[in-house]
């Protein structure tokens, strides 16, 4: 019951309020009672918003890269540490370290790495003879989105690593040993024994990563604030936030977040339903 109360008050009530506000022209700077009901006007304006289209494109590029690399790297890291290392506790701690670093420290760390004058990345490129590729990674509009995405991948891998690590410990060792005795190589054991045993974990990981892609806000806001240039790294959620609180257009900003919540919820439910059917079959 306490958990249900907290969930209702701090999650469900704000969602319902945001849906109601999205049907008004409330600016967020006046009393809500002074707002006028505009129906679906804010939602119709979404289709003609050129900036929103840019943020959708940015979020899509960011999401594809994150969902391609984070689960794969997380699995490889977990499998190597669980299978080949001796001091497992030490390597688990090292692998999980990025998740323990506070976000603000992560931002300062990677902004220093990406610094065009004294940043570690540019210094490394100069050291190996690739100085012509040095740039201001988060101030260059052609590289900023990818720089932010790489930082996000670095921050997200430990969480996936822990989930896969727990899943690997539940894989029956007898099955792996039997496969080896039947002549299966390492890659065949991974493909036909390990990965099928981790299907449920993998489904959960992809659903969580999908949700996190559309929840990305603080990292982008702190590193680039949506820039440089013309909304180069602006994401859907950061744009909704700025529309609501910076541009004083709460009604329209809430319509953006409402559509986002509905879309993410629908796709997540479909992912879980399809995965459940595969398991039942």
Can you tell me about this structure?
The chain is mainly α. It is 73% helix and 0% strand. The protein is built from 13 helices and no strands. The chain is globular, with a radius of gyration of 23 Å. 27% of the residues are buried.
SS-based class:
mainly alpha
The SSE order reads HHHHHHHHHHHHH
How many helices?
Answer: 13
DSSP strand count: 0
N/C terminus separation: 36 Å
**How much helical structure, as a percent, in the residues?**
over 70%
Give a short synopsis of this structure.
Helix content is 73%, strand content 0%.
Q: Which key terms come to mind for this protein?
A:
mainly alpha, 73% helix, 281 residues, 13 helices
Layout: helices, strands, pairs:
Layout: H1 2-21, H2 41-45, H3 50-84, H4 88-100, H5 103-113, H6 120-127, H7 144-169, H8 173-181, H9 186-197, H10 199-215, H11 218-223, H12 236-246, H13 250-280
């Amino acid at each position: 019951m306490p958990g249900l109360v907290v969930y209702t008050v701090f999650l469900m009530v704000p969602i319902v309020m945001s849906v109601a506000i999205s049907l008004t022209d409330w600016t967020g700077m006046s009393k809500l009672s002074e707002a006028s009901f505009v129906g679906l006007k804010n939602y119709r304006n979404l289709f003609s918003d050129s900036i929103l289209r840019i943020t959708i494109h940015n979020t899509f590029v960011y999401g594809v890269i994150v969902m391609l690399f984070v689960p794969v790297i997380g699995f490889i890291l977990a499998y190597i540490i669980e299978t080949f290392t001796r001091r497992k506790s030490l390597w688990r701690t090292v692998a999980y370290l990025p998740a323990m670093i506070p976000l603000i420290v992560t931002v300062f760390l990677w902004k220093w790495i990406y610094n065009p004058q004294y940043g570690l990345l540019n210094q490394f490129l100069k050291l190996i003879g690739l100085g012509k590729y040095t740039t201001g990674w988060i101030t260059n509009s052609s590289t900023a989105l990818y720089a932010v995405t790489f930082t996000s991948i670095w921050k997200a891998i430990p969480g996936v690593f822990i989930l896969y690590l727990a899943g690997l410990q539940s894989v029956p060792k007898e099955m792996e040993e039997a496969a080896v005795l039947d002549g299966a190589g390492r890659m065949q054991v991974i493909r036909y024994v390990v990965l099928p045993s981790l299907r449920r974990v993998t489904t959960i990981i992809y659903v969580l990563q999908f949700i996190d892609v559309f929840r990305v806000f603080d990292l982008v806001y702190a590193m680039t604030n949506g820039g440089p240039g013309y909304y180069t790294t602006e994401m859907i959620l950061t744009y909704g936030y700025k529309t609501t609180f910076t541009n004083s257009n709460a009604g329209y900003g809430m319509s953006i977040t409402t559509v986002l919540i509905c879309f993410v919820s629908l796709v997540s439910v479909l992912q879980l339903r399809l995965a459940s059917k595969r398991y039942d079959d």
